[in-house]
Design a protein that fits this description.
Order of helices and strands: HEHHEE
Strand content: 15-25%
Largest sheet: 3 strands, antiparallel
């Protein structure tokens, strides 16, 4: 399951070091993953969190790449990542 998010981790790792933040639409993330995000990503809750506990393997993708979720807009369907 964790391999599902490898492409997102790679994408974030390859951003220029001079870039401190990036905003991606859910649609763009799905393009990067080459599959749809799970329903939990579209609902309020811990899915877009920055804590590595529990069953949320997606968190490792952005945190291992050196990023954290700063803001999520579920209505507009976008997420802003910032460098750690």
């Amino acid at each position: 399951m964790a391999d599902k998010y490898t492409h997102l981790e790679k994408y974030l790792r390859e951003l220029p070091l001079s870039q401190d933040e990036v905003t991606l639409t859910f649609e763009r993330i799905e393009q990067i993953l080459n599959e749809r995000l799970p329903p939990q990503a579209y609902e309020p809750g811990p899915w877009w969190g920055n804590q590595r506990q529990g069953m949320y393997v997606e968190v490792s993708a952005w945190m291992d790449a050196g990023w954290m979720v700063e803001t999520v807009d579920l209505r507009e369907k976008w997420v802003r990542f910032v460098r750690q």
